[in-house]
């Protein structure tokens, strides 16, 4: 198993955000975590990436226990995190934002080759490459954020609400990019409020509610479950 989380507990002060969470991500698969706002989804990703420290429990990545590690060590091990809200550097250009994503690497030619590959995939970003990221549309910013997360050449990329606030056509573009990342062999842990769309691209799914995992199964099985559809996917 590439990523294994056992009995993970995380709190903000006296408030328990994650309560004995158990979750696994298999190598080469797209695993999605769905649930309402405030369920603890983003907290889980922040804890895996080292931005939050767990109270207890274990996070194991490719056989290495990483709970409580500093973010830079987590990135160097092969996990990247595309955060909710994009978190680009608005006064830096698209190109500068992409290079920042590769800051743990020192293979200049490899970095240049990766940038060219992604700019070929997204000609719109090539057109905007010298423009400040803060001047891009929401969809363009999201593309930059996802590509920036890929610039560290991760084994596992964690995507937090990549379609949030985007028009339906742009949502499809984002999910097309996610499919391309999966095809390239990179393992994905996806948080997404658009539960139906997430289940359509995922291999396996977990549902998080108030800090607890309340359901898990193959994504295709969840899509075919009337009870789950009514409760979590809006009927």
Structure description:
The chain has 235 residues and is an alpha/beta fold. 38% of the residues lie in helices and 26% in strands. It contains ten helices and ten strands. The protein has helices spanning 41-48, 71-77, 94-101, 108-121, 123-127, 138-150, 168-183, 195-201, 219-223, 226-232, and strands at residues 3-12, 15-25, 30-34, 56-61, 64-65, 79-82, 156-160, 187-191, 204-209, 212-218. The strands form two sheets. The chain has a six-stranded mixed sheet, sandwiched between helices. It has a four-stranded antiparallel sheet with strand order 2-1-4-5, with helices on one face. β1 (3-12) and β2 (15-25) form a beta hairpin. The mean pLDDT is 91.
Instruction: Name the overall outline.
Output: globular
Rg (C-alpha, Å): 17 Å
Terminus-to-terminus distance: 33 Å
Largest sheet: 6 strands, mixed
Task: Compute the average pLDDT.
Answer: 91
Gross CATH architecture? 3-Layer(aba) Sandwich
What is the number of helices?
10
Count of folded domains: 1
CATH superfamily: P-loop containing nucleotide triphosphate hydrolases
What percent of residues are in strands? 25-35%
